[in-house]
Amino acid sequence: QVQLVESGGGLVQPGGSLRLSCAASATAFRFYNMGWFRQAPGKQRELVAGITSGGSTSYADSVKGRFTISRDNTKKTVDLQMNNLKPEDTAVYYCNTRTPVLTWGQGTQVTVSS
Predict the structure, then answer these.
(1) How far out from the chain centre does Cα 40 lie?
(2) pLDDT by residue (tens digit) across 103-114?
(3) What are the tens digits of pLDDT across the range 35-49?
């Protein structure tokens, strides 16, 4: 069973930055289209950024220009660089395949507050 382990969250002030990382145990990781998702309290989980196996990226309008997704197929990791964070970015962040088919990890909490 593939395991997903997210890390890098924390408390940051508005305008600050964080870098999240997700490590996957999948041997076929390089073939997966991956995504970063988030779930805020009382809201549904949403996709915020995606990256194909070939490295093409896509972003939700709410994070475009502020977040950057990247991957390292050798390390089997997918990262999310988050800049100019806003209070509305507060959520638990998860990674999964672009169309989620893997068991969700524990996520990493991001809190943006002054």
Answers:
(1) 13
(2) 999 999 999 999
(3) 999 999 999 999 999
